[in-house]
Amino acid sequence: MVSFMEPLAAFHRVARVRHLPLLTIGHALRLAHPDRAGSSEAGPEMRRIARRADWCAGRGLRLALSLEPMANHPSIGWFAAPPLLTDDLRPTAGTLGPGLVIRLGRAEQRAEVERWHLHHPEVSIDCFYERSGSIGSEVVRSTLRFHPLDLALLRDRMARGAGIVLDGSIEDLAEAACLGKPMLHWLGRPYPEALLAAADAERAGLSLRMTHFNPALIHRAAPDGTERFRHWLGAADDRLGAAMSQLQRQASGRGRSRGGVHGA
Hints:
36% of the residues lie in helices and 17% in strands. By secondary structure, the protein is of the alpha/beta class. The chain is elongated, with a radius of gyration of 21 Å.
């Protein structure tokens, strides 16, 4: 069984007399990974999230998804891999000039973008957030455009833009980081997981975090860690394959002990 941090999978494995081989995959597991669990940053909030993530693994195999390289420890059931992205994102030829691409986590954040732009109308902005696709794109002024969350259009703008501002998940951070553009992580919702993701991205040299909306800081956000991150992304298939192979070996061994062989 493969679980993406589903508590019921852990409960099933722990409660059953015959433990079903289980591989749990998740970003929060990076906080409980042996390479990180003893780090100096392990404050109370991080330890709480790490314990919760580890419980969701039900004492089975664990695959921690991380923005930074981490080692595999197969002898104790721990693996690590980069975020599992569906596309190979690379910069495209040409840019949109000095424009910024903004990805909002909440629709009400739009007001902050509009207030800032009133004082900086020379900055070209394409802003994306959850809104009805039937409304379509909206041009407030020639340098300020709001779009529904069309992933194809968002990726096109991010690939050709000069800089990226986002308030999103660790998957959004990883996808944007592939492009090697200056990136600001706007912590409009500073819950613990978001703070930890922002710290990870900043430490990896992928983005600069800000607590107040100020895209003018983009000039400080040099993406120093892009090549290292891309190299780490290139290991995704091998890392996932190693964890799945271990799961398959456990499943096959369990099948032989019951008189048959079962695939993963």
